[in-house]
Design brief:
The chain is mostly helical. The chain contains 15 helices and no strands.
Length: 357
């Protein structure tokens, strides 16, 4: 194998993409159709997020070697990532090309678990049932493939809804942790599942652990914790308002007016007419005093005021997949950021310059 290819791979693994690109560029300057150099350039462009250039180099490599599985993998993943930046018919067409490229890799090597996993990655947003079926096949070939278990959990949690799917997703993520106890992608998803189930303390603790293990998750974790703190503050404020409203007087309840105490009227059986007149005068005076007191009480009572109810109302409980979580997207899974290391087969065609005419 070319020494420049080896050096370019080492530089790329160290994150020195400029040096790797320069090394591969020197090789392609002398051999423009070198298939391995073209494949490495496609992989390098994909790592840097330049999906258009990755597709250009992948197309050039496939024109030279149309049955190279690694290049079909890179092409499938590049088409998938490029389609995520599109909308409408363009996005649908891009996802279709991604699925077609991944299927071609499976056709060339159907017993390769990586090929089935990448095909599932291109299908999970549009056909999660087919994605899960292909992941089951991949796990039959390699039961300890953490990437396949992780993708299975992501598909079940984000693309299939319902309590049964959530339980299966949790099982898949815990299997990842059994194989890799500090896998931050699985830990992050399990924190989200804990929050979905209302276990805020466990979810927050899990998020903090993720940030400690992988600083790349720092922004996502901080935004999640800030969102939780905001929700706790809203709940506390609502509880205080409910307590205050319960102890205040209700302005809409009418005040009870106490009727005047009746004055006993002397019996008419034995008194004189003068006595009866005196009793009647006393009764009229008491009634007038009672009426005057009622009027004064009515005048002094404040006019009823209309209180505006509190603006905050407790939010309804939505299914987890309808809740609006922070907009920060966690880092892409590592297996999507770094395609499988390219190892050319023994019969990989070598470039031969055309014979002079």
């Amino acid at each position: 194998m070319s020494e420049k290819i080896e050096k370019a791979r080492i530089l790329a693994d160290l994150g020195r993409y400029d040096g790797a690109r320069e090394m591969l560029g020197e090789l392609l300057a002398s051999e423009p159709e070198h298939p391995v150099a073209l494949a490495e350039m496609a992989s390098l462009a994909y790592r840097e997020g330049e999906y258009g250039r990755a597709l250009e180099f992948a197309g050039a490599a496939l024109r030279v070697s149309p049955d190279e599985v690694f290049v079909w993998r890179v092409r499938a993943l590049a088409e998938l990532q490029a389609a995520r930046g599109l909308s409408g018919d363009a996005a649908v067409e891009g996802r279709g090309r991604a699925v077609a490229a991944a299927r071609r890799a499976v056709e060339l090597e159907p017993e390769d678990a990586d090929n089935l996993r990448i095909l599932a990655a291109t299908q999970r947003d549009t056909d999660p049932a087919a994605a899960l079926a292909n992941l089951d096949l991949a796990l039959e070939l390699d039961p300890d493939d953490t990437h396949a278990h992780l993708l299975r959990g992501l598909t079940l949690r984000r693309n299939v809804h319902g309590p049964e799917a959530l339980a299966q997703a949790e099982e898949a993520f815990r299997e990842v942790l059994r194989l890799e106890p500090e896998n931050t992608e699985a830990l992050y998803e399990l924190a989200g599942i804990a929050l979905d189930r209302g276990d805020r303390e466990a979810g927050a603790e899990q998020l903090r652990r993720v940030a400690q293990l992988d600083p790349d998750y720092g922004d996502a974790v901080r935004e999640q914790l800030a969102w939780l703190a905001e929700q706790d503050a809203l709940r506390a404020r609502a509880a205080q308002q409910a307590t205050a409203a319960g102890g205040a007087a209700n302005p809409y309840v009418k005040r009870k007016v106490v009727a005047p105490v009746p004055v006993p009227v002397p019996s008419s059986g034995g008194g004189s007419r003068f006595g009866r007149w005196i009793a009647a005068i006393v009764v009229l005076a008491v009634i007038r005093l009672g009426v005057a007191a009622m009027g004064a009480d009515h005048d002094s009572a404040p006019a009823p005021t209309h209180h505006t109810p509190p603006l905050y109302t407790a939010p309804p409980t939505f299914p987890s997949y309808l809740r609006q979580y922070p907009l920060t997207v966690p880092p892409m899974p590592s297996w999507l950021e770094h395609p499988p290391t390219y190892i050319p087969p023994q019969n990989f065609p070598t470039y031969r310059p055309p014979a002079p005419r």
